[in-house]
Specification:
The structure holds 2 protein chains of 2 kinds. By secondary structure, chain A is α+β, with helices and mostly antiparallel strands. In chain A, 20% of the residues lie in helices and 36% in strands. In chain A, 42% of the residues are buried. By secondary structure, chain B is an alpha+beta fold. In chain B, helix 2 packs across helix 7. Classes of the chains: A alpha+beta, B alpha+beta.
Chain lengths: 119, 374
């Protein structure tokens, strides 16, 4: 698993990249009450703000970590946003995207590096 | 920016796992380990302990209570002179334009008037009182007392464990009571829509009292985050958001705080800043109205969201002044200020959130019924 400075986690699943937010991010956000996901088929560029998360405290955006196409979204977290707090690393993934080259993930932090960032 | 001020219970908050944030110049607990949602729900179900020591506590003295009260009526549209002994009342300072300078609680304590004001307005309020009160009235800012609020349906049972006399108090009664070894100024009031008490306690006894209350398993420490969502669901105004120097008390629905004696035709009608506008708006002429707003979807509509009558085009007819998620309602809730023509309950409006017009309905306030012991 890889981690971005924006507190996303990235996991390779076949030829796709699964994206979610870290435990640290979900704790910082507080109780999540609303999630808006991009539409399947959207072509995104790295840095595009494609997800809106609202907690009881505030609204925040999540950016696409890489260029690519959104191929699947997790409707379960739209229906039940509290899953993002309950299981951010598992059940509450956000979207799956197809990228040009999976080796692009090498630019991101591994778990130890990410832990250094948030501790 | 001046240095952050620290209050008597800061170490306790940190020990309890609070996330401390700057608020109105003070380091304050915004939430504890439970988080805003659970803290909110716990307060509605049991009892929550809030530290509101950042608020200003002021004592005004004169020849007697009547002398102080009548002088104070030059600053507020409230019946201060007619307030019963050991009774408290909500009010607000008005300005010449008919706007609100701050909202406050005032209590008749027999030989003095006790006033509680908002933290962010404290300095301005004190200046306003010093400038507006005659030389015969002295103003003492209380710096050596903390202010706690115990709120929720079990607040009475919990506090009665420390002093059974609290049971006899009605909503807005005030009394000096011994709690955990200290003489406290207790009022049966709060700002959550729940029954409860506000307790002014000597700073050096505040931690003992807070620990005594928290040792009761029915009590949880509650931060400012849940305080905000609780007061929003209760339809209560937050100064600087729903009300400010430009909103008249009438358009924001606070005319009820102006008793008959201060209205046109009353024995002490007017005589407060902005009386001409405020009293004329009491006849239903306020151009805007504060309304409850229930967004149809799940997306919260927060402060500043502009409101429209149509899904496309047109000009805004109002805006959201407080908004977020209502944990008890289980959905987003908001309050807004809209043109009077669009303030009727049931009116469909649209709030523009991230460029999209989302449907929202004008509803009756509060979102959750008040639970006071009247």
């Amino acid at each position: 698993m890889k981690f971005t400075e924006d507190h996303e986690w990235l996991r390779i699943e076949g030829d796709l990249v699964v994206v979610g937010i870290t435990e640290h991010a979900s704790t910082q956000l507080g109780d999540v009450v609303f999630v808006e996901l991009p539409e399947v088929g959207t072509m995104v560029a790295a840095g595009d703000e494609i997800v809106v998360i609202e907690s009881v405290k505030a609204a925040s955006d999540i950016a696409a970590p890489l260029d690519g196409e959104i191929v699947e979204i997790n409707e379960a977290i739209v229906d039940e946003p509290s899953k993002v707090n309950a299981d951010p690393l598992g059940e509450a993934w956000f979207f799956k995207m197809k990228v040009d080259d999976l080796s692009l993930l090498d630019q991101f932090m591994d778990e130890d590096e990410y832990k250094d960032l948030v501790d | 920016m001046s240095e952050l001020l620290h209050l008597p219970l800061e170490a306790l908050h940190v020990e309890l796992g609070a996330k401390m944030v700057p608020f109105a110049g003070y380091s304050m607990p915004v939430q504890y380990g439970l988080g805003v949602m659970k803290e909110h729900l716990h307060t509605r179900a049991a009892a929550g302990l809030f530290d509101v020591s950042h608020m200003g506590q002021v004592i005004l003295r004169g020849a007697d209570y009547q002398a102080v009260a009548q002088a104070f009526e030059a600053l507020v549209p409230v019946d201060v002179a007619g307030l019963g002994l050991n009774r408290q009342r909500y009010g607000y300072f008005t300005n010449q334009a008919g706007g609100i300078e701050d909202d406050l609680m005032l209590a008749n304590r027999g030989d003095h008037l006790f006033v509680v004001i908002n933290a962010a307005c404290k300095d301005a309020d004190i200046a306003l009182m010093r400038a507006g009160l005659p030389a015969g009235v002295t103003l003492e800012v209380i710096e050596d007392r903390a202010l706690l609020a115990l709120q929720g349906p079990l607040a009475e049972d919990v506090l009665a464990g420390l002093n059974p006399a609290v049971r006899a108090m009605r909503f807005m009664d005030v009394a000096d009571l011994d709690l955990a070894g200290a003489t406290c100024w207790v009022s049966r009031s709060g700002y959550t829509g729940e029954d409860g008490y506000e307790i002014s306690v000597p700073a050096d006894a505040a931690e003992d009292l807070a620990r005594a209350l928290l040792s009761d398993e029915r009590v949880e420490a509650i931060g400012l985050g849940a305080r905000d969502s609780l007061r929003l669901e209760a339809g209560l105004c937050l100064y600087g958001h729903d009300i400010d120097a430009h909103t008249s008390p009438i358009e924001v629905g606070l005319g009820w705080a102006i008793q008959k004696v201060r209205r046109t035709g009353g024995a002490r009608a007017g005589g407060f800043p902005g009386a001409a506008r405020i009293l004329s708006e009491l006849d239903g002429k306020a151009p805007r109205a504060r309304v409850g707003l229930l967004p149809e979807g799940r997306a919260p509509m927060r402060e500043g969201v502009e409101l429209f009558t149509t899904a496309e085009g047109g000009h805004p007819i109002g805006r959201v002044t407080s908004g977020g998620f209502g944990p008890t309602v289980g959905a987003p809730v908001a309050m807004g200020l809209v043109a009077r023509d669009h303030a009727t309950v049931g009116t469909q409006l649209y709030g523009e959130v991230r460029g999209k017009r989302l449907p929202v309905t004008v509803v009756t306030l509060p979102f959750t019924p008040a639970n006071f012991k009247r």
